[in-house]
Amino acid sequence: MRFLAIALWVFLLAPASHAADRVAAARKAREKQVAALFSKAGVAWPPEQLYLRAFKHERELEVWAGTRAGPLVKVRTYPFCAASGELGPKRRQGDLQVPEGFYTIDLFNPMSSYHLSMRVSYPNAADRFHQVAGVSLGGDIYVHGDCVSIGCIAIENGPIEELYLMTLDTRAKTRRDVPIHIFPRRLDAAGMAALAERLAPDAPLAAFWQSLQPAYLQFEETRRVPATSVDRKTGRYLVKPARTARR
Predict the structure, then answer these.
(1) How many Å from the N-terminal Cα to the C-terminal Cα in the chain?
(2) 235 CB contacts (<8 Å, ≥6 apart)?
(3) What number is the average pLDDT over the span 90-111?
């Protein structure tokens, strides 16, 4: 009986132990490199603020960091190695779409089947507004490693170890979820024109992308993360200048 109790205890603790080992291995392999990236960018490590921007057309994920009150600087750009679907938001389970909109990283999974993964807070209020009755929006959208995607953003395993540590340690320091904004592409004038040419007849989609553009433009101008919310009546994103940081 005592043997069975010990075996059960070991079995229950094993997953947590393996998770800790995987994160510890990533930290051993990548922490000095991460610290060097922040030092080169002139940003304290861990930072007071971290911001992720993803662009589906360009297949790039940017990492920005800095103080809570000042402008952010770019620390690193990671290329996607896999991303499924097309340009446009995710509207149902199984559509293979990478979402578009304003989210946070709200969960860390060190035991992921895709090496390490960080969950995107999809669906948000805008996604739920546009939900068709009886149709599941799905969920479990992650940024992860292993270069496969069924609606997630995948980057290579070395980079996901860096990004995981950046996000995990910033979350531990600030006690705030890290924002991630996912855009169809860079939404400058040329990008919007390209989207309009590609899907000119689709008025709802054009309106959706237009609601994303102010956040892109404000950050380009100020290098501060704008405040975003969702209009309860229309489901459109509302964008305001970054809030003044409280000390």
Answers:
(1) 56
(2) 125, 126, 129, 130
(3) 96
pTM of the model: 0.90
> Is 144 among the catalytic positions?
yes
132 contact partners, CB below 8 Å, separation of at least 6? 91, 92
- The Cβ of residue 244 has, within 10 Å, a number of other Cβ atoms equal to 7
Nearest to 26 by CA among 186, 166, 208: 166
Please report, as a single letter, which amino acid is at residue 12. L
pLDDT score, position 103: 98
Catalytic residue among 81, 115, 152, 181: 152
Whole-number Å distance between alpha carbons of 1 and 40? 58
Which tokens belong to 174? Answer: 């600030």
Q: Which candidate in 18, 57, 130, 144 is catalytic?
A: 144
Helices (H), the chain: 2-41, 125-129, 157-174, 189-198, 203-222
- What's the alpha-carbon Rg for the chain, to the nearest Å? 19
Separation CA 41–CA 72 (nearest Å): 10
* Measured CA angle at 45 (ends 32, 168), to 5 deg: 85
* Domains, the chain, ordered by start: 18-187 (2.40.440.10)
CB of 195 closer than 8 Å to CB of 185:
yes
Does residue 186 have a pLDDT over 50? Answer: yes
Q: Regarding beta strands 227-230 and 237-240, do their DSSP bridges make them parallel or antiparallel, or are they unpaired? A: antiparallel
Active site residue 152: yes
